[in-house]
Amino acid sequence: MGGYTDIVTMLLERDVDINIYDWNGGTPLLYAVRGNHVKCVEALLARGADLTTEADSGYTPMDLAVALGHKKVQQVIENHILRLFRSRELV
């Protein structure tokens, strides 16, 4: 939630469950998007965070970025999706 990319990276290196929901119905990626923490979003996506997870409100990470007007986060998510499609085309 605080946007501390170094802490996110440290936890990811210790193989924490990247898609776990907390008591408030959020995942690390949803919190990073909500906080407009671009570098944290990039780190989480690079390690395989699930873009299809939904908050209790029904918002996916992209829905949340759009609703909050976080243009840079939207761009990061869009670029990540494009990379996924391109990598599958090569297979």
Question: Could you describe the 3D structure shown?
Answer:
With 91 residues, the protein is mainly alpha-helical. Helix content is 58%, strand content 0%. The chain contains 5 helices and no strands. It is globular, with a radius of gyration of 13 Å.
How is the topology of this model organized?
Layout (H helix, E strand, L loop, with lengths): L4 H9 L14 H7 L3 H9 L14 H8 L2 H20 L1
Helix pairs in contact: 1-3, 2-3, 2-4, 3-5, 4-5
Could you give a short description of this structure?
The chain is mainly alpha-helical and 91 residues long. It contains five helices and no strands.
Mean pLDDT: 89
Question: Can you summarize the main beta sheet?
Answer: none
Shape: globular
Category from helices, strands and their pairing? mainly alpha
User: Order of helices and strands, N to C?
Assistant: HHHHH
Radius of gyration: 13 Å
Total helices: the number is 5
Kindly, what is the distance between the CA atoms of the first and last residues, rounded to a whole number of angstroms? 36 Å
